[in-house]
Specification:
alpha+beta, Arc Repressor Mutant, subunit A, four-stranded antiparallel sheet
């Protein structure tokens, strides 16, 4: 799906308030409510966007958060599939450089985090997993992909 400037404007508005009425969005972008609804539906159906409730992990009972750097011997994709199946892993990416995978995890307490780390280390192929516990999140944003594409380019 190709994103035109109107789609990007709709996304920006939904990132601020995912429950915003289509009629309000339509006024902002100069389309009919039906056209906005159709565009949003198409972006949802093609996986361009998701509209979800974002929670505060501490208030949800998960005060322990960490990033785990994982090195794998052998098939990284097979290890990633097994790690991705662990419920407490909410973000998992393959990386370039000195590590193969980064996993973000949330746990209810230290023993839970310890158990989680052991489950990750038990995945076939995992050679090393190093944990970086979060003390404080200084910035968390959901504004990906809506910035001016050329604003990051410097003369």
């Amino acid at each position: 799906m190709t994103l035109d400037e109107t789609n990007r404007s709709i996304i920006r508005l939904l990132q601020v308030d995912g429950r915003r009425a289509y009629a309000d969005i339509a006024k902002e972008v100069g389309l009919s409510e039906a056209a906005v609804r159709q565009r949003v539906r198409r972006m949802l159906d093609t996986g361009v966007i998701q509209i979800v409730a974002v929670t505060d992990q501490i208030q949800m009972g998960y005060p322990r958060a960490a990033m785990i750097a994982i090195n794998v011997d052998g098939d990284v994709q097979a290890a990633a599939a097994k790690i991705a199946a662990i419920d407490e892993v909410d973000y998992l990416v393959s990386t370039a450089g000195g590590i193969d995978l980064l996993a973000e995890v949330f746990a209810t307490h230290d023993e839970h985090l310890f158990d989680l780390l052991n489950r990750i280390r038990a995945v076939p192929g995992v050679r090393h997993a190093q944990t970086y516990m979060y003390f404080k999140i200084h910035k968390q944003t959901y504004q990906w992909g809506t910035h001016d594409q050329h604003s990051a380019i410097r003369d």
